[in-house]
Amino acid sequence: MKSSAAKAELYYRKDLSTLGEGPVWDAGVLYWVDIFEKLIYVKPDDAAAAERYEVGVEVGALVPWENRRLVLATAQGFQSFDMTARRLEAWANPEPSLPDNRFNDGKCDPVGRFIAGTYNRNGVAEQGALYVLDHDRSVREIYRPVSCSNGLAWTEPGTLVYYIDTATGVVRAFTYDLETAKLSNERVVIELPKNGGLPDGMCIDREGNLWIGLWGGWGVECWSPASGKRLARIEIPAANVTSCAFGGANYDTLYITTARHGVDPATRARQELAGSVFCVRPGVSGYPAVHYKGDRR
Q: With a threshold of 0.90, does the pTM exceed it?
């Protein structure tokens, strides 16, 4: 790993996201969302500008599927999106009786199920849950209660998953059953300082360490779940850092999303780039995104 002083560079600022989130790198293309503006961004790495897809619903997370189609976790449940036809298709909504909830963050597990969680827009604690969209498009709850469901990352064998409920300020680990998506043996592996920002989205590198975006923390930090210690920090010129994902030809570039939402007026002059996407090469590499491997009907 390189020095903790590695400096992030501006990657994309043509459109400043109100609430940029959920970066995913796949086949030379970076995807991310602007939750509040109900937008999906798709930027081939060699293109000057990203294509914007207005989807008409808050998208908390997306995962690649097939044939220019994505699977989304939205305010209306799990949906697919055909980028060619620009068409949404509703699949399943596990919380139809909770209109103040929406999906927030999510990723595919190592066998291609989509795992995503919810939170309450009004900030009411413990109203959300973590769900699995299985290969047959059925949905079931695998963990609750959750206040603000966020980062997920699996170790390479896939039998251990790390999870962030932002409100708790900690990273939890679970034993993960690849056959059933059942979580067990819950424990806290990282406790972040209370004055350093709240843990948001995250990803894992090939050394088994976690890269965590810090809401209100002006950066991304690398933490060891084995020791519970911070290993590195990347400074970002935006307070509200939302998530990060490895990409690039060798998966050695970290792409970082940020938000304009929640900018403190006292620090606004320092945050002209808030809502941009940043990148950095931290000296380690990550893993390719896992596609949803479910029903093709």
A: yes
